[in-house]
Amino acid sequence: MLKKLFGFDPQETTVKTEILAGITTFLTMAYILAVNPDIMSATGMDKGALFTSTVLVSALATLVMSMLAKLPFALAPGMGINAFFAYTVCVEMGYSWQFALTAVFIEGIIFIILTITNLREAIVNAIPMTLKHAICAGIGLFIAFVGLQNAGIIVSNESTVVSLGTVTSGSGLLTVIGIVITSVLLIYKIKGALLLGILLTSIIGIPMGITQLAGIFSTPPSIEPILFQFDFSQIFSGEMLVVIFTFLFVDLFDTIGTLVGVSNKAGMLDEKGEIPHAKKAFMADAIGTTAGAILGSSTVTTFSESAAGVGAGGRTGLTSFTTAICFLLALFLAPLFLSIPSAATAPVLVVVGLMMISPIKRLDFEDYSESIPAFLCIIFMPLAYSISDGIVFGVISYVLINLLSKKYKKLTLSMYLLTLLFFVKFLI
Questions:
Q1: Where along the sequence do coiled-coil regions lie (predicted)?
Q2: Helix count (H) and strand count (E) of the chain?
């Protein structure tokens, strides 16, 4: 039954490993339950309803991923794209949140069509293997940076953009302690080391005053204020087209980057560098985005924090199924789950960042036509704070460098078309 439902293979993994991996993934991305409502409420949307929406959308999309694609990846409203929704479309451009939700809904329908026609899968297959290794390494740096930032170890600085925060007290110190604890658990090959690291760090945070236990149970707020709230009066306007294209572009390449990177780390890519069940994985993303708009959510995407579950041994849909169940439990156990501080999940993101960067050793650093585009792809992800931008600069530089070096045989028509698409993105 487990094999039929989730692709579970007892020769490759165990039920215990998959469940622990699913819980680990959830705990590393549970911050979205607090952060997404906070960002989206800037539009005037009801914050309580946004919490319920975030939980339901994440659970639904992740369930589809677990049972349709049978892959250990979790989905939720994407960070970055939710900020674009709230601060750019609604606050800066002045459009209503109903207008923005309509754009997300249309984007989701377009994604379903693109997935059915295999276009999204074709884009993945067009990316050269060198860049697929680079994407995996870039995501490693990206999620490590996110973890350190969430913990307050890396902070903003007007002079240098970022700088070192406090590591001798507070969240910074707890994160350092957590990194040491998690590292030692991994070295001793303790089962469920990442999850155990999160729990132990959270417990240590109690006497430090960082882990604040706010209770266990709560009743989920009603989703009615943001349910089915669309505004189709401007669907043919140029502004709607620009917003839809931006949503499409960011979600498309964030999802591609995460799927490629985490699949690479899990050893799931085949000889051609293709992702198993890629079409079904993209369909889960498309369904999540479409249903999410109906439920009042911004664009749904595959989370790079899924790498934490893969790092904990997750390999099948049972991992993502467990994550989805955790999201549903969070509807009623929100105070308990949200008591786990960022300082307790940050160590796992840092350690998983190390795990993700390992494919960098497969790069040919002596061949600059390969290594320079790969390096740009890697470095732009954390510095631009965007997986999609890393892919953009990686592909554009790969095509231009090899074209000008007269290495035409390495380039395909699909790569030329991708490069053209990226240039159009910058023009818009």
A1: none
A2: 18, 4
